[in-house]
Specification:
Layout lengths: L1 H50 L6 H20 L2 H5 L19 H10 L12 H23 L4 H29 L3 H28 L1 H28 L6 H28 L1
Length: 276
Amino acid sequence: MSLNVMKILLQIRSFVESKRAISMANAFSGGVFLSLAFGHMMPHATLGFEESGLPANVPYFLTLSGYMLIFFVEKVAFDAHNIMHEGDGHGQQQHGGGKAVADGSSVAAVAAGGGEGGVAAGGNSGRSAIILLLALGVHALMETMALGLSSNRVSAGLLAMSIGLHQPAESLALLVSFLKSGLSERQVIKYLSIFSCLGPAGLGLGIAISEFAGKLADAVMVAMAAGTFIYVGATEVIAEEFESPHDKWKKFSALTAGIVIIAYVTHWAESLEHMA
């Protein structure tokens, strides 16, 4: 009995520590997303529209359209935030890991029942989990499409880093939602496989647009992708991470570091590009 209790406590401790690390990485990625959107993607889109002889304010409205698209998908059509936090139990919400929220008892329940594909701890329905999959899927598609639209290796590397830092929080939220939904193990694997395929699909779509659709189409998609990045950085990451009273100074430092480092690297990369 005592060994089982120790095992559960170690699982909870490991979960909390991993959530803290994910939280810091998520805050840093928020700064990366914002810095890339305002310092690289929007100027790139504006230049593309100016070269095409179109008004310079059009890309800003397209950026706003990209923001509104993701806002509609996540907050209106599917309400992904509430689905993520359904059934957290006892009302003790803990946002340190970005989105996957659980107290000690629900963590233990997920760990105990996840392998059998059924956890009734939160009472989430399979429908809610699938809705969350759709919302995060659109999200992932837009993010990786921006990666495919990258104009050089440095910007592609920065985008890949920002997505890589942000993705674990979304994947963890989706996994916990599936484990709580009562879906079978086979169904969970199937839906997670679908989710994992959306990233490469978005990347391929972005590359195709960049290669074959011309500069104006490229500028349009970059402007809309910038709106997605602003949503992720400002509305999603900052709102989620700073709801919790824990580690606010550390999170703010990580957020600021993401902005400053990416701004410097972007400026350095553009200087090299102009010199070449």
